[in-house]
Structure formats: structure tokens, C-alpha cells
């Protein structure tokens, strides 16, 4: 590991190369490292238990703690929002709707939210609530959601039922729909049995260190599940009693993030404070140990922003990293290298590598072919030549941008031959 770090830093200090990456044109209204969507409601003026009285806000932050609203932002009606950035487009989802913000121009593509649809291959529509987006290896948006029901609270059993099953599924973006149309993926992501006094809703999906983590709001707490594959079968995380990361009453309607550089999880929830709620964050290194009330610190309340006030409830955080270049590779603090897209001849692939201790070598551990490449047209992919030289134009390590070259040697081994700071 020491050899690897020395090779990276030697280019910085001994060759005098302090090259600065020139990012794509980004509006100054959205340039924080992190983005959050949430809904608000004025408890002094209206009935906030009615989602029709909720308004969607978008904020940004450089540290995940101090948040500021987009300058000139006008809130709009919507509830339980979540969001994701792909290229220069920010997609803000609410149940049945999406609104798209063009980051390079600083304007909304949609003057108002537009309808989203989820359908089966037969063409039959799926009723859904609580969409949570993530990008797959093809750069397509995948929505995780709770299957809805006609009448009543979709998070609970229907009237007269003593128990029921809540079903959570995923759906894949239809090519060319720009995040507005989706097809249901095969199988269910998870089915959760509840009683008439319990609830299950508001899924939040994010990438973890060895697969994917799915948070679900359960009875005023947070249930945590995981799967190796994005579209796999999610199981309770081992070590948590009934999968509960956050116990009942301590915070719910979660958003999660795993920082593969620091090895930290960030878990956001909203928690009641008298007649209102606020958004709190817990920072933790383990996902298999329950969080306590003292794990959380308030980061957003109605009083945070001058346009709101102490009578406003702030709820339902949706979190995303403000990543410009979806082609960029990443090197974690454990030296796992993820290359989201590389070309070999006319084909496109993604690939994962693991560092070989006390060497400059990386072992190819997983890869797959990318079937749709339109989502990567706005950035420069990594390339694998016919001589099996792997060139990565952008790889982030400790939030610093490098370019790197690897040469295939034998077996599944690639050796680092060059690394320079961008």
C-alpha cells in the first residue's frame, strides 16, 4: 500500500505536475458536494398530515452538515422527495412525478413536475409510492419503490386486515425517456410482513462497501437490509435485531450514503421536535450495530432557512452526491478500484479491481458488459487497448482527481505503471 501511495504522490512532488482538472460548466447555483431534497409544511397555517400541503425544497452542502437552499429556488407542491444526478441533469422524484434541473444552465427543464410511469412488460401499469433512484452499471436510473394500494395509507394494512405484506420492487428506466418511464424488474426486492399496528414504507437505496444497502421506514424507525446485486433479494443485515438500525421513535423516513474513502456511513432521518420535525444525521463506521438517539445531530430544521421558520416541519430527506463525471473511476480507502465504464474495441464494460498487498498490482475481481451507452456520451470513459493497457483518465482517491495507467501482466493481474494528478 505504501508503494502505491508513493507512486501517486511522487508525480505531485518530484515532477512538479500540479495539473488542475477543468470541470464541465456548472451553474454556481448548484456546486456543493452533496445535494438533499426534503419536504416542508407550515404547522401554524395548515394540516401537515395531508401530503397535499407539503412543498419540495432542494439544498446543497460541502460537508453534509451545513446546508443552503439553491439561490432563487421556488418550492413546489410534492411530498417524500428523493433525487439523483446524472451528467448535468438533476432528477427530483416525488410519488408519480419527476422534475429535472439542468445544472450546466441553472434552469429547470420542466416548468412543473411531469408524470412518471412504471409498467410491467405486458403494458399494465404499476401503482407505486416513495420512489428512490440509483444508477445501475449502464448509467440507467433504477427506481426502488413501495407497491401502492387503492385507498388508505400505503404504508399500512388496509382497513379490516390484522396483518398484511408490504412489497418493495425496483424498475429500470426506459431508454430515451429521460427518467420518466420505467419497466418493472423481475422479482421483488423484499416483502415485509406487518400487523395492523405497524408500518413499512419509504425505501432508500444506496451503494455500500460490498453491494447495496436498502433502508426502509419501519414503525418510526429504520430497517436496514442488503444484497450483493442491485436487483437481488434483500435480507436483514446480520447483527441487527430484526434488521432495525434505528429503533422505533428515534427517527425514520431515512436516506443513506456510504463514503468509500472514509469508510463512513451517513444516515439521515427526520425526528419529531414538539409539533414539528427536523432532519438529523448520524455518522457511523458500522452498519451492523444499532444507532442510539445520541448518534444523531440536527442538521436541518425550519429555523435553518430564513424563508421558513420555527413553525415549519422539515421531513423526508433524500440524499445524493453532486457528481459531474459519471465515467470517473474511484479508489476507496481500502484500495478497491471501481471503473464504471471502459471501452475495449467496440464494446463497453464496467470493472472492479482489488489491490494486491505490498505491490503495485490490482486483481480484476468482477466485470460486466454495458448494454446501453447513451448515458455515458457526455464524459470520457476509460480505455483498454489491444495491448491490454488500461488508461483511466479520471480516478478519485481521497477526493483528489488523478489519471492512471495499468498494464496487464498475467492471470487477472494489472500493474500500475503511471499515475498523475489531474
A few lines on this structure:
Helix content is 3%, strand content 50%. The protein has 422 residues and is mainly beta.
Report on the structure:
The protein is an all-beta fold. Helices cover 3% and strands 50% of the residues. It is built from 1 helix and 33 strands. The strands form 6 sheets. Strands 26, 27, 28, 29, 30, 31, 32 and 33 form an 8-stranded mixed beta sheet that branches. Strands 10, 11, 12, 13, 14 and 15 form a 6-stranded mixed beta sheet that branches. Strands 1, 2, 3, 4 and 25 form a 5-stranded antiparallel beta sheet that branches. Strand 21 and strand 22 form a beta hairpin. The longest helix has 12 residues.
List descriptors.
single chain; 422 residues; mainly beta; 8-stranded mixed beta sheet; 6-stranded mixed beta sheet; 1 helix; globular
Termini separation: 21 Å
What structural class is derived from the secondary structure elements? mainly beta
| CA-based shape | globular
Cα-based radius of gyration, to the nearest Å = 22 Å
Estimate what percentage of residues fall within beta strands. Answer: over 45%
Structure annotation, total helices? 1
Biggest sheet descriptor = 8 strands, mixed
Percent helix among the residues?
Answer: under 10%
Mean pLDDT: 90
Outline the low-pLDDT stretches. Answer: 1-28
* Total beta strand runs: 33
Q: Any chance you could write out the topology, listing elements then pairs?
A:
Elements: H1 2-13, E1 34-42, E2 55-61, E3 68-69, E4 76-77, E5 82-86, E6 89-94, E7 97-102, E8 107-108, E9 114-115, E10 117-119, E11 128-135, E12 141-147, E13 163-173, E14 181-184, E15 190-195, E16 200-207, E17 212-218, E18 221-227, E19 235-236, E20 244-246, E21 252-259, E22 264-273, E23 276-284, E24 296-300, E25 312-321, E26 329-331, E27 336-344, E28 347-355, E29 361-369, E30 382-384, E31 389-397, E32 400-410, E33 413-421
Parallel strand pairs: 10-14, 26-31, 27-30
Antiparallel strand pairs: 1-2, 1-25, 2-3, 2-4, 5-6, 6-7, 7-8, 7-9, 11-12, 12-13, 13-14, 13-15, 16-17, 17-18, 18-19, 18-20, 21-22, 22-23, 23-24, 26-27, 27-28, 28-29, 29-33, 30-31, 31-32, 32-33
